[in-house]
Amino acid sequence: MAEAAAVPNARIPELFSRQRANRAAVKRSTASQRVAKLERLRDAILAREQQICAALYADFRKAATEVEISEILPCLVELRDAIKHVHKWMRPARVATPMTLAGTHSAIHYEPRGVVLIIGPWNYPFQLVIAPLVAAIAAGNCVIIKPSELTAHTSKLLVELIGAVFAEDEVAVVEGDHVETQQLLALPFDHFFFTGSTRVGRIVAEAAARHLASSTLELGGKSPAVVDDSADLPSTARRIAWGKFVNSGQTCIAPDYVLVSEGREQALVEALRAAIAQLYGDSEADRRGSPDLCRIINARNFDRLKKMLDDTVSQGARVELGGGTDAQERYIAPTILTGVRPDAPVMAEEIFGPILPILTYKSLDEVAPFITARDKPLALYVFGEDEARIDAVIAGTTAGGTCVNNTLLHFANHNLPFGGVGPSGSGNYHGMFGFKAFSHERAVLRQGRVDLLNQLYPPYTRKVSKMLGWVRRLFT
Ligand code: NAD
User: In CATH, which of 3.90.10.10, 3.30.565.10, 3.40.50.300, 3.40.605.10 is domain 9-219+427-440?
Assistant: First the structure.
């Protein structure tokens, strides 16, 4: 069976060639034509909202309202922004002319990259394909999309949705697993846009390097939440619990673990208990029955999380809340752990599930060295009322993005670039940043009628040396 699956998919090179043949025409599309495409995409999404919710429910029992909030709404926001601004974004951006180049004028032209590949993950399988697609279309590219094979219902829906809006020589969906992805990665795309794990991100980066193509890598990692002593615990706990347990912790920017001072640990645990009760129910049974907690995507991830939890507890961590699991339903209860050692299994990799370890510090000064000793995170959260202490944490660390006194929300502002740093990713998108990610910034300088620089042409006589001295005195 494995050999049969490895047979090359003949449609892939054929699609790629057709898009290549079409890329010059799509490049020439006007802003109004791109707006019309984006409007057709928006209308097609609006007409299928129920199917989108049904697909995500079938894939991992995600609640319809959570699909509306976290999958459909962000796409509509990106679409609105691009529809409103693509005229402006496409306009060449004039830049200043240094005095040494008097007589010329310069501008940056935003050219589409050409034919681009968008590879999606399973955890937000609709949004994390459609949002980059919006940017790629606004920038005038042809696009092949490879959705995750783990969310088969959403993948099928994307095939139908994209097929209804676009001709295949402009935007097409290729379904499949790593075999199809490897086949796609062997083709000389003009840009690779990947959202997924750091492990596969490396494979994509290697492929892009082989083609000397550009890439955007939206990866993962362990995103810490730092709670300063000046933080208001009830609101902090509520916002951490929301950011952690939405999508059952399967969010790239979910707070992965919490750092709190020793003296406030128990108070934070109590506040988190109350917050989780408010969000998902008072008892373990209520929470298990909550329609708002989705399930773990598959058995492999369920087993990984259960082993991580069991091993961490057997090494001395305390379960303050939750801890229960059900393999058949792929359910893991919202879980809080204390007494977690920095070398515990739960701290060795991105958790990507509803388990929240709490670690303690004696002084806030320990926090930045603790975080910077590990991989650069995708997100870093700081809670507190003391601005100087918050700024000290921000200044002492690095992260793809940061949210102060809340979680996840920096992702939702399309005026901010969204992306990682180092092992959590490179490049960014959302709003205008997405348009730029899918564009080549072409430098264009035009020589005007007045040409002063020709005074410096050979032959290099004494007159040229004098001119040069004069230019240096005046302009450097
Ligand atoms: P993944 O890396 O396993 O899969 C992502 C995509 O890569 C899928 O389409 C898959 O088919 C393909 N793929 C898998 N193995 C491959 C291989 N060997 N060669 C080529 N392609 C392969 O990631 P995932 O499990 O779908 O998503 C979870 C990860 O994604 C987490 O680490 C999470 O933090 C990260 N993530 C990041 C963001 C972000 O915006 N930065 C968003 C969501 C998820």
Answer: 3.40.605.10
